[in-house]
Amino acid sequence: MERTRRSLSITMERTRRSISGFRILVRPNFRSTIFQRLFWGAFLAAVGIVLVFLGGGALRTASAALVGLLILGIISISLGLAFTLSRPVDQRIERMRVFAEGLLEASDESGASLLSYLGVDQLTALDRSLLRMAGQTRVLVERAKLEAARREAILASMAEGVLAVDEHLRVTFCNQALARLAGTRMTSSGMPLASSGMPLMELVRDTLLQDTLSGVVRSGQPAKLTLQIPAGSGRSFELHAAPLVSGGKPGDKPGAIAILHDITDLERLENVRKDFVANVSHEFRTPLAAIAGYSETLLDGAIDDQANNRKFLEIIRSNAIRLNSIAADLLTLSELQTREAVHNTEHVPLAEAIDSALSTITAEAALRGVKVERGPIDNLIVLGSRYRLEQALVNLLANAVKFNRADGKVRVETQRNGTSVGILVSDTGVGIPSRDLPRIFERFYRVDKARSRQVGGTGLGLSIVKHIVERMNGGVSATSQLGKGSVFTITLPLA
Length: 495
Hints:
The chain is α+β, with helices and mostly antiparallel strands and about 500 residues long. It folds into four domains: about 1-140, no CATH class; about 160-245 and about 255-260, Beta-Lactamase, CATH 3.30.450.20; about 265-340, Orthogonal Bundle (Helix Hairpins), CATH 1.10.287; about 340-495, 2-Layer Sandwich (Heat Shock Protein 90), CATH 3.30.565.10. Helix content is about 55%, strand content about 15%. The chain contains 13 helices and twelve strands. The protein has helices spanning about 1-25, 35-60, 65-105, 120-155, 175-180, 200-205, 205-220, 265-300, 310-335, 350-370, 385-400, 450-455, 460-470; strands at about 160-165, 170-175, 225-230, 235-245, 255-260, 345-350, 370-375, 380-385, 410-415, 420-425, 475-480, 485-495. The strands form three sheets. It has a five-stranded antiparallel sheet, sandwiched between helices. Strands 7-9-10-12-11 form a five-stranded mixed sheet, covered by helices on one side. A two-stranded antiparallel ribbon has the order 6-8. Helix 3 (about 65-105) packs parallel to helix 4. It is elongated and about 160 Å long.
């Protein structure tokens, strides 16, 4: 309803102005400054001419009727002359005023800007209209500058690379992310040095990108593909390209806009997921195959074989225990990787947690003939879960024992470093090749797969250690010499 009333008001005002403009054509506008000045100028000029040619004596001897007619004639001539000369000017001024008011109404739909010009001469009305138009134009320009600055700030802060080209594949826009990707130098203000009009191949030397944008410009259809830019250090990008029309004029040829989204991390995570599924399937397949095979052997009559039936059952039991261990470790990893998991944060005495882990591993170490040494341990406090910290220490100590040689040694000690403490677990075992060190904390990664399965390893122990320590805002690292042993270091912040 309000919008209808506003439109009706605007229509009525425009009608009134049209009528006013028509009146100018049929009668003089006595309020017009131009008309008044022309009239008085013509009147005074006519009076002056009469006085010069007739003289003052002739006027004094003339009758009153003749003087009246003379004055009436002078007024009529002045009115006609003023009307004839002012009408074209008034018409042009009125058209300029109506045009200015039309521009104002286009940007002011409220109708509040409509003024009544009754009783105001046309030059004053035009002056007011132009002043209002200038003020409103200034507001529009400032608003456009603000919007342009806002868009530039958004595009500059985007992590995705944004690139725009014209129909000749010349660069018309390039944000900072794409400039860094292309290796383009930046200005002191942080903007790319890529100037407008630079050929695309000079900015990004990639033929696939150029061919894709060229196809978008020709066909006017969007395109999507995955590519690797040579200057991007082997990272993968998902390219979204679409046509871009720079103007609305007929015949304007479209350019193209491209957005490059870095999907390297997504691809890496997808590969990790695929590897994880493949590894889990493989880890479950081996014990399940052993259980199924020996069960069928027993069912086929070997259960009555007193020499081997117990051995077969022990194999089935050991593989069932292995399956249970894998499942338990997977559940532990799942819990540690869940961000919403409850943090059981408490003050953990470091010496007590280490002693508890040592007592857990002592029996297995004695069984394998490995000596466990307790080095100097500071009585310090860390924040975290005592249960999880003991679990991480047991995993490290168990690996040090399992992958050690006969009569080998395992040593655990602490070293304080300012506001953090390091827990060092060292062994005299077989060691780890340098090429395998960067991957030993990955799930299911084994340096010696045959020996790992022989000693009952699941391939998840070190991955669990890493996630436990990271949940306690710490870190874990390893150094090793092949044939001499390894040192694993857990670093935790002090409480």
